[in-house]
Specification:
The structure is a single chain. By secondary structure, the chain is mainly alpha-helical. It folds into 2 domains: 1-27; 31-61, no CATH class. It has one helix at 2-24. The radius of gyration is 17 Å and the shape is elongated. The N and C termini lie far apart (45 Å).
Length: 61
């Protein structure tokens, strides 16, 4: 039972942290979430699978 309560508490803390980050950011947007911006994930310069932008077209560098 302690493990279940600890797990629920940690999940709640994680969700609260994300909610605070969204609340504190301008327009509630995360910056730099395109995978095409991460050189470790996109070594070949392919466009983002979500928004379709190339790495050089992203506004958050």
């Amino acid at each position: 039972m302690k493990l279940v309560l600890l797990t629920i508490g940690l999940l709640a803390l994680g969700f609260a942290g994300i909610a605070i980050k969204i609340w504190a950011k301008k327009d509630g947007k995360f910056e730099g979430t395109c995978a095409s911006q991460n050189p470790h994930l996109n070594k070949t310069g392919e466009p983002c699978g979500f928004c379709g932008k190339l790495p050089e077209d992203c506004e958050n560098k």
